[in-house]
Amino acid sequence: MSSLNYPLCVCIVTIFSVLYLVFDKWVIRFFKIKTDSVSYESSKIAIDRLATWTTWLTGLQTASIASMGFLFNDNKGNLELTPYGFFALLFFGASIILATWLLSSLPSIQQRLINSKDPEPQNDIYMMRIFSFVPLRMGRFTGLIHTYFLIGMVFFALFVFKIFSH
Question: What is the pTM of this model?
């Protein structure tokens, strides 16, 4: 793969991400996605678990990127390995950036929860905006983070397989 194609791949992933997040209202209407009524306590637990999951995921991806550096360096920079490594870095990097944004939005989400004894539809954190002033829904955001992590893992596995198959 020519190094000139790498910026194009970054642009394509960026455009896909923006379109995926922006067309959320259309997806909700088309698939008739409903909001669940959730208690205040359940929402707080969900936020805590989401923070733990996102932190763990970011750490795992960072460790994978570091191991790629060691493996690439030990392999004397074989250029055949570059496409797999590039795509693993691209998807891990995109997932880490989105996860960082997600983690920074969790206090905003917790502040907007409704503290009542009865379950409230406004407490469904996956239907809430990541920030009150940003029209991107938490559920779409977490889906994109997870998807990029999985794609990154596939390319990471191909990268490692290529190194050890020599």
Answer: 0.89
